[in-house]
Amino acid sequence: MKPRPDRRPLLVSVALSALVLAWLALVVALLDYSLDESVRQAWLEAWASRGPLLALLVVGLLIAVSALVNWVWRRTVAPVRRLAEWTQALADTGVDRELQVEGGPDLHALTEAINHLVVQRRQVLQDMDARVAEATTGVAQEKARLAALMSELSHSVVVCNRDGRVLLYNPSARELFRGLSLAPGGLGGAELIGLGRSVYGVLDRQSLAHALDLIRQRLARGQAQAKAQFVTAVGSQMLRVQVAPVRDTTSAEGLSGFVLMLENVTQQVEREAAREHAWQSLVETSRATLAQMQALVDSTDWQGTQRDAARARLQEAQAMLNHRVRMGEHEAGWGLHQRWPLEDMWGRDLLAAAARRIEDATGMRVDLAAVDDAVWLHVESYGLLQALASLAERLGDEFGVRQVALRLQPGEGRAILDLEWVGAAISTETVMGWELDPIRLGGQTLGTSVRDVVARHGGSLGFERNRVTQTACFRWHLPLAAAPVQSSTPMVLAGSRPEFYDFDLFQSTPLSRSLDDHPLSELVFTVFDTETTGLNPSQGDEIIQIGATRIVNGKVLRNESFEQLVDPQRPIPASTVPIHGIEPHMVHGQPTIDVVLPAFHAFARDTVLVAHNAAFDMRFLQLKEDSTGVVFEQPVLDTLLLSAVVHPAQESHRLEAIAERMGVTVVGRHTALGDAIVTAEVFLRLLPLLAAQGITTLGQARAAAERSYLSRLRY
After folding, report:
1. Domains: count for the chain
2. What is this structure's pTM?
3. Taking 80 as the threshold, does the pLDDT of residue 679 lie above it?
4. Which of 138-152, 211-225, 491-505 has the highest mean pLDDT?
5. Residues involved in catalysis
6. Contacts of 82 (CB under 8 A, 6+ apart)
7. Degrees (nearest 5) of the Cα angle 171, 674, 572?
8. Which domain holds residue 227?
9. Which helix (H) or strand (E) holds 608?
10. Which of 466, 575, 634, 686 lies at 20 to 30 Å from 111 by C-alpha?
11. 477 against 306, higher pLDDT
């Protein structure tokens, strides 16, 4: 695809031709002025008959001037501009190749001098690489050992920076998230995790934020073991998540990131639910049998000592069976409680968090006057806070309560937590309904009830009213925990670096700035390409393959890729098969675009899209918005337009031509993933050239691309 022709040679030709014509007109005027009237008249008569010849001479002169200007331009100015662009590319991208010789002898000499410098730089870089390799051999060996250790861990480990961007994960974590994607309700195998992606795209933001709040509170008090855990649902699966901080002594809040250890507990919960159901059935059946036995004992007309002996044996058997039923019921209840991990928590911390949650959700005023600082609880804090806030919200909505009090005191083997208010009386039926209804909070309905939360803690919930003070309260009985023993031993984050890591992400905070103002060097990019049945998306051509890779911190993550054939549900023209190499039998039975696009959308979430001739690929995606419901709202950068920005004098901006200029090896051309990887390498080499022109942010790059002449292309 050729750029707009340079108009400057034409302008120079027009200007020079105008000067020549002006000079000829001046000469004619001077001759006319110097001649006698008779000679002037004869001269005019002689030229009047030769007008066409005179016009032909003038046109020939203008053509000769234009040809001369064009020849001089191509021999001098154009080669100089191309040489300047090539030299700039060598200086800013580190491409190692010698320049082509163009132009006259002087340009030949200049090109040879530049090539000599290229050879010298190559030698210097080789010497530097050798020294760096020698100095880092020991570090590389240590890294390999640590990576091997992490890769062998059976636990799923993910490390994130303060903003929740993933900077490390091990193979176990990758397999865990892939399983979540393949599970019912998942995304059909799409990668849910990747370097630079937000963990909040997978895990519940509120649960994780709550865990981090607990960690910050514990760090502020100087606790050595400042950890938290919670259970969350991902699609149809349940994850148990343990959170530990990555400490940062230079940060005001004391942490630069956090470590997640994840475990899929879905099957465990299902097994325990089945066991609970079996126990419950046994209990109900046994109780019915006991009732029948009691009725038999009471109704049978036994005689004398025979009656007393039989009744004694039946009563003994009944007592033993009663005991076994109670034990079974207790074990079933204990199994239910163990499904939800409880954690030790300072009572004042829990009530302070509850007060914030209630105030945020309802706008109520919350009083924390009566809280015993010696009370430590063993609770599942997130569910408990949701239940407290839900009860407060219903008090406000249904009874107009505008102020509540939270009180916490130790009891006999339990802590007593009161949610208290003044005024409105509530019937027992209403209390029972609120306890059994699914928790409602902020317009959302959760899958658990207040009674479920009570059961998790093996506690109880009651309703009490004081007629003297005109107050009422929900009274919770919660398990106590021993206060933690403070330790002066600093926490050491044990772990090692796996294959998937990029610790430079600790330095970036992309969520704290607007995307357009963010430096290109710190953004995460998804570079993609499509193969299609033809070149006319508006006339029925369809996508037959999507391929993508990711760029994080200036590196192409080839191991984090997306590649999927698509059944276009229409014939693939035979004329296009030699181009993309995809034959009709290869797409038969493959998923259709309505399945593939959501998976690709999940892969590209929270990133900037990059493509070569992006207008073509984006048109195919946009035409599928109505039928799939998938909308790609991310910013898009086009390497075709960016190449025209940095190299306006180059004749071609095809992907192969740019790759050759940038020293990128083309592998797998005209396959979606192959083209995506080549485009990614080209894009990385364009970044320093853009920076040399003062284009360093996403907004500046988009604006520069939009000003390009090639941006007018439409599909």
Report:
1. 5
2. 0.57
3. yes
4. 211-225
5. 670
6. 102, 649, 650
7. 115
8. 142-265
9. strand 608-611
10. 686
11. 477
